[in-house]
Amino acid sequence: MKRIFSALVMLPLVLGLALPLLAAKPEKGQAKKKAAAKPGNADDMWVVSPVPELPEGVTHHTFHSAAMNRDVGYCIYLPPGYEKDTARRYPVIYHLHGAGGNEARSVFSATVLQEGILKGTLPEMIMVFPNGGRATMYQDSGDGRFMAETAFVKELIPHVDATYRTVAERKGRCIEGFSMGGRGSTNLAMKHPHLFASLFNQSGNVYAVSDAARLPNAYLGDDMERLRANDPYLNLKKNLEDIQANLRIQVACGTADPDHLVTVREYHAALTAAGKEHSYFEVEGLDHNQKKMIEGRKDTWFDFHIESLKRGGVALHYRKP
Questions:
Q1: Which of 77, 153, 197, 266 could link 127 by a cystine bridge, Cβ 3.0 to 4.6 Å?
Q2: Do 135 and 18 touch, CB atoms closer than 8 A?
Q3: What is the pLDDT of residue 36?
Q4: Over 212-245, what HEC string results?
Q5: Distances, alpha carbon 293 to alpha carbons 8, 12, 188, in Å
Q6: Mean pLDDT of the chain
Q7: Burial code of 31-42, b = ≥16 C-beta within 10 A, e = fewer?
Q8: Lowest mean pLDDT: which of 24-38, 79-93, 255-269, 287-301?
Q9: Please, are residues 278 and 9 in contact by the beta-carbon 8 Å criterion?
Q10: Max mean pLDDT range (17-21, 201-205, 210-214)
């Protein structure tokens, strides 16, 4: 049984899991040699290899990130009518993967979207699945080595808008993610609310990274100006007028997911205190499992984004089943 909470204040979810270091296995004859450690974010993890089998309508691509001087992978779902209806432009949902994942990890949601489009119950939309690194929280690292935020905001979004027939403006752009992707989508939406019509945080931790109790921050560094600029709670306050007027927020988490439920509730409370209308629900007995969360509500999973697009005046196209 699920438990639903409604509030006049509704906000995104942020899932952030710290990924442990991966130890290299010693070769034979080197048992006494200490295994080398790999950092949570590795330079060789920005393009999945090999590319796994992908759902219908999903293809794999790369773009070049000047900020990191490397290629970065992404998967994209194009709806069934995209190739034939060459005059139509489509809204986009950006879906961010969780910690330790890659661009091919969370494409299950594209299958749900495809099924709904073919049945005529969901409008034709594009979905983009970026590679956000192993544990970046979709933020730029303090040492400048991993530029996940810059690559997403200044490089991937412009690349997608230039390459595909998107509704290339805020009203046609949604963002969401699970776990680290929920946290990352919340970080990005609070910092850049002018880019998105809606945010859906799915079991993503939302941390006040400038809080002295959470320092030092191994990824962002110890520069307080940088920490404050990347604190989603401070950015909520800083950008509240824009968020109030233009960004719709939905947040969800399972009640059997204690590592994430605490900060998800904190974010929900912060949205409520700020007077920000939002949608919030908890799923009774659900652990940290995105597929279970989606499967229990396939028919309504995209409703929040769809309503946001409608309110923005985006023309939506439904196929006849």
A1: 77
A2: yes
A3: 39
A4: HHHCCECCCECCHHHHHHCCHHHHHHHCHHHHHH
A5: 23, 16, 23
A6: 89
A7: eeeeeeeeebbe
A8: 24-38
A9: yes
A10: 201-205
If you classify domain 3-15+41-311 with CATH, what class do you get? alpha beta
Residues sharing a CB contact under 8 Å with residue 315, sequence separation 6 or more, in sequence order: none
Confidence at residue 41, expressed as pLDDT on a 0 to 100 scale:
83
- 273 phi and psi, to 5 degrees? -65, -30
Residue 72 is given by DSSP the state E
Q: CA of 43: how far to CAs of 60, 101, 106, in Å?
A: 19, 14, 21
- Neighbouring CB atoms inside 10 A of 243's CB total 25
Distance CA 14, CA 186 (A): 6
pTM of the model: 0.88
Burial 147-179 (b: 16+ CB within 10 A, else e): bbbbbbbebbbebbbeebebbeebbbbbbbbbb
pLDDT in tens, 83-139: 999 999 999 999 999 999 999 999 999 999 999 999 999 999 999 999 999 999 999
Pairing outcome for strands 173-178 and 198-202: parallel
Q: Which two tokens stand for residue 70?
A: 């490397």
Please provide residue 71's backbone torsions phi and psi, each rounded to the nearest 5 degrees: -80, 145
Does residue 267 have a pLDDT over 60? Answer: yes
Contact in structure between 274 and 245 (CB atoms under 8 Å):
no
- CA 82/CA 177 separation, integer angstroms: 24
Q: Are strands 22-23 and 37-38 parallel, antiparallel or unpaired?
A: antiparallel
Q: How many residues does the chain have?
A: 321
Radius of gyration of the chain (CA): 19
